[in-house]
Specification:
4-stranded antiparallel beta sheet, two-stranded antiparallel sheet, mainly beta, binds zinc ion
């Protein structure tokens, strides 16, 4: 007897994405992606294409993860990890880093 499997389609290549969430490891960071639905192969490609350097630890910040946003000296945005491993202080913003752009950008009240 087979248990019923719901198949999800990758929004990038249209292929089956397997199980949700899509889980990959990128530079020792585990990424669990629930939304959008992207297969592991495509997600890895997107990471390589859209990852930004962390202003705090210098590591790569993969897309589809929570980020902290700092204002640089010239008004540019600097991204930092929102992980305990990269414990950055003083970030006034945080948001959800999507495919090469920040999504759900929120300002935290400075205290
Ligand atoms: Zn795909
Ligand atoms: Zn970092």
């Amino acid at each position: 007897m087979k248990s019923e499997q719901v198949s999800f389609k990758c929004s990038e290549c249209g292929g089956p994405s397997g199980e949700r969430p899509t889980t990959i490891e990128y530079y020792e960071q585990e990424i669990f992606l629930f939304d959008p639905i992207i297969c592991a192969n495509c997600l890895l490609k997107l990471c390589e294409e859209y990852a930004v350097p962390c202003a705090n630890c210098g590591g790569a910040i993969p897309p589809f993860s929570q980020v902290g946003v700092l204002k640089g000296d010239c008004g540019e945005r600097l991204f930092v990890h929102m992980t305990t491993a990269c414990n950055s202080v003083g970030s006034a913003f945080h948001g959800y880093f999507g495919k090469g752009e920040i999504r759900n950008f929120v300002q935290i009240e400075a205290c």
